[in-house]
Design goal:
The chain is an alpha/beta fold. The protein contains 11 helices and 16 strands. Helix 1 packs parallel to helix 3, helix 2 runs parallel beside helix 4 and helix 3 runs antiparallel to helix 4. The longest helix is centred in the middle third of the chain and has 37 residues. The chain is globular, with a radius of gyration of 20 Å.
Length: 363
């Protein structure tokens, strides 16, 4: 993701994740509605990166002379579960409003919003680096001797972050010091973020990885092939309940039964003190066609346009398609943040960590 200023006006340029791994194609957003569409179609995704995108979206609206309040509202509500999105929007919007209140003209207020977005971008890159260090130290503590075999779900690498990611960044850190034996990659149905994106990042980094269907994870645990589970998060409630890509909760249950650490890696901005518990997390429901059709993201198939779908269920089939599920805190071994590790995961431990962090300004 980058901010660019061609002669025709400022734009936000995104790597279109719906085209990966077949094509590395850039998507250019000239206004907030275009960015909202990119967010909803998952061209840009991942909790931390959504926060950065939201902040840049506010700056884009301001720089282009659009209604900033309207843009902020549309962006903040583009995906309801991901708390980082609303956080990033509010941060840039507040900076813009404060500048206007202080007497800044439209141009200067837009610069202030852009500075807020860039600051968030830089902070997230630093948070990624620190999470990787904390996470690697925790893995080494829990699994002395190295040779870690780590199972991950969805995509949590550089594609979701201003840096190298969240959970994936921990696995990458282990790889770089020679302590990652195998990265097990859930394909992550129905949209295959693991198969398309995590495998893409693992291959680019020369990591030893193996892809599996989500429903094969149980056999891996039963065979003693998993030393730890590493996932990200889209929202962490005040009690430590974790909303993440659907399929995460079953992994937590498997991990508990097989006595395998289940570790969540996320920046402090993903902790939402205003959401008291897991039952209070709004879970996004996505279109049934994502389940009843196989999407063709980049390779045209005869009779189907790239980005279209091939039906795999009878016409009229109803589908249940939550984007996320919620894992209760008692199934989470630890939450790793840039500010340190919370283990055991308790309301009090999370509150103390948030109080230490200068980044938590959620209101």
């Amino acid at each position: 993701m980058r901010w660019d200023e061609p002669p025709e006006g400022p734009v936000l340029v995104l790597l279109d994740q719906t085209r990966l791994p077949g094509e590395e194609t850039e998507l250019v957003c000239t206004d907030a509605p275009a960015l909202v569409q990119a967010i909803r179609t998952l061209a840009v995704r991942g909790a931390p990166l959504l926060g950065i995108a939201g902040a840049y979206g506010v700056a884009l609206a301001a720089a282009r002379g659009f209604d900033v309040d309207e843009a902020a509202d549309a962006l903040a509500n583009a995906r309801p579960t991901a708390v980082n999105l609303a956080y990033g929007v509010r941060r840039a919007h507040a900076a813009y409003r404060d500048a206007v209140t202080a007497g800044a003209d439209a141009t200067d207020a837009a610069r202030v919003a852009l500075a807020a977005a860039r600051a968030l971008h830089q902070e997230d890159a630093e948070a990624s680096r620190r999470m990787a260090a904390h996470g690697l130290a925790l893995l080494d503590e829990l699994l002395p001797g190295g040779g870690h075999r780590v199972l991950t779900h969805c995509n949590t690498g550089a594609l979701v972050s201003g840096g190298e990611g969240t959970a994936f960044a921990v696995a990458l850190a282990a790889h770089r010091v020679g302590r990652l034996r195998r990265l097990w990659v859930d394909e992550t149905r129905p949209l295959l973020q693991g198969a398309r994106l995590t495998a893409y990042e693992a291959a680019r980094n020369g990591m030893a990885y193996t892809l599996l269907t989500d429903n094969a994870a149980g056999s891996l645990f039963a065979g003693g092939e998993v030393d730890a589970v590493l996932i990200g998060a889209d929202r962490i409630a005040a009690d430590g309940s974790v909303a993440n890509k659907v399929g995460s909760y079953p992994l937590a249950v498997l991990a508990r039964y097989h006595h395998v650490p289940f570790i969540v890696v996320a920046p402090v901005t993903t902790v939402d003190p205003e959401t008291p518990d897991g039952a209070s997390i709004e879970v996004e429901q996505r279109g049934g066609h994502e389940v009843t059709e196989v999407t063709v993201p980049f390779v045209p198939v005869t009779g189907v346009e790239a980005g279209g779908g091939i039906p795999v269920a009878p016409l009229g089939t109803q589908a249940y398609n939550p984007a996320f599920d919620v894992t209760p805190p008692e199934l989470v071994t630890a939450i790793v943040t840039e500010e340190g590790v919370v283990s055991p995961v308790t309301r009090e431990g999370l509150a103390e960590l948030c109080a230490r962090s200068r980044q938590v300004t959620i209101s």
